[in-house]
Write a structure and sequence with these properties.
The chain is of the alpha+beta class. Helices cover 21% and strands 35% of the residues. The longest helix is centred in the N-terminal third of the chain and has 30 residues.
Amino acid sequence: MRNLAGKCEGRGACTRATFGLLFAVCLALPEMLVAQASSTPTPPDLLGQLSQASEALIKKVAPSVVQILAVGYGPLEETSQTEAGLVIGPQRAIGSGVIIDPDGYIMTNAHVVSGARRIQVIIPAAGAEQSPIRSLGSRGTTVEAQIVGISRQIDLALLKVEAHGLSALPLANYRKLVQGEIVFAFGSPEGLRGSVTMGLVSAVARQPDPDSPMIYIQTDAAINPGNSGGPLVNVAGELVGINTFILTQSGGSQGLGFAIPSALVALAYPQLRKYGHVHRSQIGVSVQSITPALAAGLGLPRDRGVIVSDVVPGGPADQAGLKIQDIIATVDGRAIDSLPMFGYSFYLHPRGETMKLDVLRLSTSLQFEVPVIEQSHKVDRLLDLANPEKNLIGKLGILGLDVDKSVADLLPDLRETSGVIVIARAAESGASGASLATGDVIHAINGTPVTSLAFLRSELERIKPDQPVVLQIERDGGFMYLSFQLEGP
């Protein structure tokens, strides 16, 4: 045993010396603690710092979040159990959106504005106070919005309002998103504009539907009806995703919220703005899932995964060296074990990038670098048939094309092969509230069938400013009405 009081004379002396030292330490301990307390800095107010950081973030992001009011017609609930049949009436949907460009471009969900005849956006007042009293009077500015582009496949829509110098939200790098990251969900749950909740990224890539290539960010930040289209934001104030749907049995938030990743927003935005729709990336192959029966019949080295079933002659994959019956093992180093996983890889590769593929050809592992190209949309092929001057309909702010036999042959899904098809939006729109999108077919104006582009122009010229205009259009295989008023000369 180590000697604590110098050299001791036997065990008893050591014990007395040790006790004496401990007694002296106990007497001095209060003074030691006081001295230590006075010399140790006060612990930081971590909760206060967290609160201040959250307040600063919300103040920064809030001006970029809008409320969307969409009015249209749809089926109503039966008012009486004795009534039968479907009742159609006006419907009003409330959602959220995020300003993505200072010149008035707003991203939201396609389902928020689906079937809308009129869309209004409430833009928050700049520099609005967050104090309880002042926030009650912060109503924002209500403006009319037009649909610039829409993609129902990925559930995104791009709106445009006549405003400039708005506060736009920057996009986060989706590849840097990690599980457990703190995020904030902004929006108008149940119509309560300007709401925000905090949570974590539960999963960076969740696939609720195994038959769909869509992958979502899962979060436990509270998301409810009305949050759709609003932003999911990281602590840097960047857009991580667009809040889209929840999984729930009660109808309210149960911590299972899903958002479209920022990578898809970055891919969709320029295409929706330019074309009005999204082009899917491709490399010129067709693939299908490997089943045990398929593997046994072809003698494949594995009984699950993805196999190349066709290679487009002269396409990027063909030129790179891919062949039918190649098994896709990895894309950019990520293992591919399902068809949706392979399909999702294209969402992360915009045109011009290169996909690095590892494939199995019999028992040989091969590597390929294949350039990604965009798959042409059917409406884009009609642009070659149009003249920007001859096909301009200034009062509607669109380029239109007569639906004749050649056009109908390119669009075999049309229910009515007549009228005028919208092939592009003009830079300057002369219509107020005419939410026409590329691919829409105008079949009638104020109840009169539209037989040609010239007829549509003449009918628009006959309508005086501020008089109502009702267009019957065909969109995505269904008919609907658009009502608005023409602006003055």
